[in-house]
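Archive entry. Fields below.
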Amino acid sequence: MGEGKPDLLQGTLDLMVLKTLETMGPQHGYGIARRIEQISEQALRLNQGTIYPALLRLRQRGWIRAEWGTSENGRKARYYTLTKTGKAQIDTETESWERVAATMARFLAVSEGR
Amino acid sequence: MSWLRTAISRMTAMFRRRRLDCELDEELRAHLEMAAEENRRRGMTEEEAGQKALRDFGGVTQVRERVRLREGMPLLENLQRDGSYALRMLRKSPGFAAVAIGSLALGIGANTAIFSIAKAALLDRLQVPHAGELRLLAWRSKRQSVVHSSWGDWDKTADGVSSTSFSYPVYLQMRKQNHALADLFAFKNLGRVNVTVDGEAEVVQGDLVSGNFYEQMEVRPQLGRPIGPADDEKPGGSPVATISDGYWTRRFNRSPSVIGKTILVNLVNVTVVGVNPRGFTGAKGTQSSPEIFMPFSMQPLVFPYSRETSLLTSDRVWWMQMMARARPGVDEAKARAALDVALKSAVRATMTVKPEESMPDLVLGDGSRGMNEASRQLAHPLLVLMSLVGLVVLLACANMANLLLARSAARQREMGVRLALGAGRARILRQMLTESVLLSVLGGLMGLAVGYFGRNAILAMFSSPADPTTIQGSFDWGVFGFNAALSVVTGILFGVGPALDATRTQVTSTLKDAAQTTTRRRKGFAGRAIVGFQVALSTLLVVVAGVFLRTIINLSRVDPGFDPRNIVLFELRPPQTEYPGAKEAALFQLIVERLRAVPGVESVTPTSVAPLSHSYENDDFLPEGRKQGHDDIADNSTVGDEYFATFRIPIVAGRGFAETDTETSPKVAVVNQALAKQFFPGQNPVGKSFTTSDEKDNKLMYQIVGVCADTRYGSLRENPPPVFYVDYRQAPAINWGMTFAVKTRTSRAAIAPSLRRAMQSVDRNLPLTDVRTQEEQIGELLQNEHVFADLTAGFGIVALMLACIGIYGLMAYAVSRRTNEIGIRMALGARAEQVLGMILREAVWMTAIGVAVGLGCALAVGRLIASQLYGLQAWDPVTLSGAALLLVAVALGASWIPARRAAAVDPSRALRES
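PREDICTED_STRUCTURE:
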């Protein structure tokens, strides 16, 4: 029970949460988790609970902001919003992801070309 | 800077722990409800919906944990929780806590106090810039040296003498010829001077300094001006003085009006021109500052040296100290050689050197601690004290170790349960660590208090009203830190060590009591080893205490050779300007008559050497008809007619002094038996003559008219030396003023005012100083020995208590663990007394080994303290066996209760409760 998760996984989850908030606007934890499940078409078998440590992390870094609000069915829930720095972080992360993807693509193309 | 934001967020979260927990719970609950609702919409039953929501979520508790881990500062929070738990555990066993903390506090406190004092006395430097550059000049020569009259240090070395005193003309010449070191400057501690400020008289310490003193010491006064070269030109031409910061505070209330104020110093008008900076203590020592500083030019007026018109021009008297700075880069060997040449040429220029006399060789010593007298006198005793107190700290740590071991063994079950419940090993170890550290911290805090007050108490023990050099120095945090660290390390070792062991074993075995056998044996050995160590240390400390106690008892029992009871002593220094030469003798006569007339007084005598006050006077002693040799020196004392009667010293042959021995009648002397034995072996000295010299080196002949019994002279430890006495009316020279001894029929408090009135009737301005009784004087002599006996006795008692507790704890624990075994024994027929005997035998056996080791150590280190003992050897068998018996008795006493408990075990119950 520790912080042993590889950075890559953490980073990807963070980016997914940020992206979700960018697209969907302010959302509560359950909503974010469901959306990630949908987009990944159930390919990612993450326990929904794992989103909360990630949300706390993002909050501590100042990339998202939390407020208490009311949900669709009148329930009290915590809503997360993207901040300006968070938005900038998306661009930085997206760039780095695209770079990784491009490098990987080149490697795969090379081995295929053999 | 996101890590910074994270850090801040985590720190602030620490304080809102509860609210954050609440919020998280609510958020998670909302999540689960929303998930369940969606599942219900999809068509599941309520139960299924809830279960699926939980499954999809994953482990709720784990998520909570992970969030909490990120939120606050878990390390600090756990520490805080561990700390409060540890406090609760300590409060539950107050006895254990009290003993552990108490013994730690005592050990740490005592150690810190003594080390602070030792450091201040031995290592403190003069508070001047670059104190390390200062060099103190001294000289060495064979026993028969050119110097006949000296005031100050006079150390007898293996084959001669050494001293730091020089004559003023020699100083002037050497200063002119010095090119190697920086400018030579001079100082002299006069000792006690009478100062009258606004009509109120008191006795303070005074120093003489040369005109370049302040400049060379690189010290500037905080108020007014320093003494400068212009003040040191003409004798008496510049009656100025500077005062110390302490004196300024004490006497003048730090008022700036002190500058320009006129005060009386030894009845001479002097103007205060400056105040020294705080912390400046002059050049003599580091511990305390003389109150008043005057230029050397003031000596003839303020501190006249009887019969010499001025010490500034006297070639004969060597009395003042010299220092110089050795700037970096100076070749000190060359400098010393150059100054040596200067010294010898100065001696030849100012004195006549006889063929049998040896010239002085110059020595350059370290001056950064001044003349370092405190260090010389106290170095050895302080080192001994430091070692002893270090042993006490070890004992205290051993005690704590023992207690911790016993406790952790008792808590093995608790740890087994915790492990079973899922606590990590690291967590348990951290808990034990916190407990041990808490103990050490509490012990350390209390040790701080003990150290602070203990230091003041010990300083008070060392100082005396006559010797105002009290050791100051600040509380030494370095030593305290070391001690605290030592106790923390002990706590960690013995608190965590067993815990490491316990958590390594299988959970099941610790939960079962029967599985104790293997672990118990190992712990038993550690416990025994520690207690054995404690016993050995205690034995050593008790032996040391014993020898010091016996030393002080032996010294107190020494027969001084005279009757010290009911004798009042006081000092008198008549100013030379008013009582020169013969007038001084007439003054003494008058004083004796007036004092004798006071009701309650039996007899009165002046004496130049007060008995047993570390005061010495010696002079040439050449029996008639013999050629001058190398050893013809004897101690002497200039006394009054009633000297032998006042001190009840028997005259064994011939007579004492009488009124008929006047300035004009033939010169007579009385010698003691030791002198008769040395200089006139086998003969009757009465009627024989001898010559001695006066301050101008004239030879005077005396006839011996009586022999008196031997008495101790300067100290109780030395055997009675050869002494000759002359009457003050026929004395060759009176250098120091006199001590007056008054034998009274009543106690001192009653008679002192009458004595003062009698003195005032002789001369209003003659101050009576240093009033004390002969017994108090002897007490002062033995003060160091008293302090030692008290301190070591204290250590010995603490050591015994700790050993007692250690033995009791170990035996009690052993008995409680062996209840099973004892039950079986008794069931098989052992009688209660046999069980009792078994436990006691074990305790004595363990103690015996410890005692043997302790005695061995005592024998080994005995040599180190032998020089401080008196009347017994360091391996004194009586003390050694006494200590051994005492420890065994303590061991028996300490194990009595556990042994009784073992004997009272009810076999059937013991076997049932396993």
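CURATOR_NOTE: DSSP finds 27 helices and 26 strands in chain B.
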